[in-house]
Amino acid sequence: MNEQAWLALGLFVIVYAFIITEKIHRTLAALLGALVMIVFGILDQETAIHHIDFNTLGLLIGMMIIVAITAETGLFNYIAIWSAKKAKGSPLKILLIFSAITAVGSAFLDNVTTVLLIVPVTFSITRRLQVPAFPYLISEVLMSNIGGTATMIGDPPNIMIGSAVKELTFNAFIANLTAISGLIAIVVMLILAGLYRKQLKANEAARVRLMALNERDEITDVRLLVQSLSVLALTIAGFFLHQTIHLESASVALIGAVLLLLMTGERQLERALMKIEWPTIFFFIGLFVLVGGLVETGVIDAIASKAMDMTGGDVAKTSLLVLWLSALASAFVDNIPFVATMIPMIKEMGELGLANPEPVWWSLALGACLGGNGTLIGASANVIVAGLADHEGHDFSFMRFLKIGFPLMILTVIMATVYVFFRYLA
176-182 — which CB contacts under 8 Å span 24+ positions? Predict the structure, then answer.
C-alpha cells in the first residue's frame, strides 16, 4: 500500500478509537475524520460526496418522517399495550414477542424500517413496566440483522448481490438463506432470554396497572391513523415492488413521506422534521466518507485480493474465507462498500475457472449480514437504535453493545459455517 493508503487507514483507526472510547460524540468523530480525509487530499470533495450512500440516507429520512407522524396517532402505545396484555404483562415474554416481530419484519421490510417501527413501542412498554430498555433494544438490533439475512430485500448486501447476479432470484434467497436465518434467530433469542431473565422482573402493581389499560384509548387521532397506515402500506408495497417499478428504496420511502406530509399539512411537516435523528444521519455521512477513503486508496481492495490469493481458487476454501472475512470486516466497516468491492472479485474468479461460485455468493450474504451484529457501527440498524436510545436517555454505548453483540456474532457465523459446509461443500 502507498503512503496515502496508510494515512487513510491510520485516520480510520484513530476515528474508530474515538468512537470506542466515546471521548467525543461518535457523530463529531466521524465528521471530523471525514473532513481530515478531504483536507489531507486523500479524497477531494466531489469524490467524498460520491461515496455518500444517498439511498441509505434517503431511506432513513423518509421512514423517520413516516414513523414520526404515525407516532402522533398513538398507534405505538396501542401496539405496546396490546402486546403486553397478550403476554400477561411478563417482561420476558414481551422480549421474545418483540424479538420475533423484529426478525420477521426485517425479512420482508428492510431492517432499518423495522427498528424504526418497533423501538418506539419498546420505549413505551418499558416505561410502563419500569424495566430496563437495553435488553429489548439489543435483542431488536440483533434480530433485525439476522432477520434481514433471510430474503433478498431484507438487508442492503442481499439487495446488491441479487442485483449483480441475476441467477440469484428472490425465491433462491428464500430457499438458501431463510431456514438457517430462522434457526439462528431462535438460538439467539433463547440465549438473550436466558441472559436477561433476572433483569426483566416487573412488580405486580405495574403488571396489574398495565393489564387494566384499554389499548383503544391510546388512539388519539383516527383520521391521521388511517392516513398514516394507508401511506405506510403503500410504502411497504413499494419496497416489495421496487425492482418491478424501477425505483430505489430511498425513492419509495421519500415518496411515502412527502405524500403523507401533503395529506397532513404544514404543522406535521415542522414536527416531523424536528424528530428526524439528524446526529445519526450526519454520523452516516462521515462514516461513508471515511470508508470511501479506504476504498479510493485501495485498502479494502488490497485486503480482499490478498485473502482471495490465499485460497488458490478452491471453492470450499474460498467460500469459508469469504464468510469469515466478510463477517469480521462488516463488524468494523460498513458492509455496503465491502460487498461492493467483493462482488466484482467473485465474478472475476468465476470467469477464471472457479468451478461453482454459488456457495461463495451465499457465504458473502451470510457473512456481511450477520457480521453487522459485531459492533455498534456494523450495520445501519445498530446506529439508528443507538441514536433513538440516546434521545430517550438510555445507555447504548459502543462497549456495552460489543460485549453482547460480538460473541453472539461469532456464534452465528460458526452456525453459518456449519450450514455452508454441509449444504454446499461436503
Answer: 176/362, 176/423, 177/149, 177/150, 177/151, 177/362, 177/365, 177/366, 178/107, 178/150, 178/151, 180/366, 180/415, 180/416, 180/419, 181/107, 181/146, 181/147, 181/149, 181/150, 182/103, 182/150
- Overall average pLDDT of the 77-83 stretch: 84
CA torsion sign for 264, 101, 64, 220 is positive
* pLDDT(86) > 70: yes
Residue 109 pLDDT greater than 80, yes or no: no
Angle between helices 75-86 and 54-71 (to 10 degrees): 80
From CA 130, how far away is CA 357, in angstroms rounded?
51
Domain boundaries, the chain: 3-51+280-376+415-425, 54-277
**Residue 328 has which C-alpha cell?**
469480521
Contact 402, 376 (CB under 8 A): yes
Cβ(323)–Cβ(413) under 8 Å? yes
Rounded to 10 degrees, the C-alpha dihedral 238/240/241/243 comes to 110
What is the reported pLDDT for 168? 84
What pLDDT digit, counting tens, does each position of 231-288 carry?
A: 989 988 887 787 788 888 789 889 999 999 999 887 788 888 888 889 888 988 998 8
**Residue 290, Cα to own-chain centre: how many angstroms?**
19
Cα gap 336→300, rounded to integer Å: 12
pLDDT of residue 205 exceeding 70 = yes
First to last CA, the chain: 37
Over the Cα atoms of the chain, what is R_g?
22
Nearest to 95 by CA among 67, 146, 129, 145: 129
93: cell is 415474554
How do residues 155-199 score in pLDDT, each as one tens digit?
888 888 887 787 888 888 999 999 999 999 999 999 999 999 988
Amino acid at 311: T
Residue 135: phi and psi, rounded to 5, are -55, -40
